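Sequence in, structure out. Go.
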Amino acid sequence: MPETGEVIKNTILAEKVNCYQVYAPAIAAKRMAGQFVIVRLDEEGERIPLTIADADTAAGTITLVVQEVGKSTARMARFKVGQKFTDVVGPLGTATHIEKRGTVVVVGGGIGIAPAHPIAQALRRAGNRVISILGARSKDLVIMEAEMQKASDEVLICTDDGSYGVHGLVTDVLKGIIDKQGKPDQVFAIGPVVMMKFVSMLTKEFSIPTVVSLNPIMVDGTGMCGGCRVTIGGKTKFGCVDGPEFDGHLVDFDELVQRQAFYREQEQESLASFQHHCERHKV
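Output:
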């Protein structure tokens, strides 16, 4: 019997994107769409907030899709089957509000496709017609296409370079849906902050209710560090405890972009130091 926190499977989905199945039966049984976990690799490790992409209650596992962007996620990518995370805490965050709205568009950009998956599943179970838009820079970076096909009534794919699907941005595809099929009843957008900003700008123009997930800005995951402060409708909120989902038309995205860049230099230095250590010691 595996131990809680044990890695059951670690597979590569795309360049610097890994999919982990982690044994966490209590979390698998209780998690809801939109929620996340906090992972620590070891006693000295930082707290990493990761959205739950899927769960298997029978196997007692949760699925985490992680992009290698810093030292901790680079270390995580090297975890082998049988290794164990020191902590896996959750489910945390406010679950996605799911109701039958009619036609709902779920937009997943890049790594944001992973947290979009359980939302698409839940919306479809609630009786909605789900159209999913998957966006990536190129074909080899499109992840979880098969899973999103199962969770959706229709899947549309676009790439920045035109190597797969529509040559263009997710906003181009969303505008095409509005023009051809009429306004959807609701839009969910998850992905890079800039992508969510422009999706929200488009849907605001058409008065389409829009939910964005601000999990990219979370740091500590408990509201204590203040790193995920965001202005929503002129009021200060915390992404991890008040969200991670908010009304996209009320988010101050310009402030959010600036906040994301606060520690970029230190993060890059830490990653470079870790990579140098790995090369030197052939890890």
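Check: The first strand starts at residue 7 and ends at 14. The helical segments are 25-30, 71-77, 113-125, 145-151, 170-181, 193-205, 253-260, 264-281.
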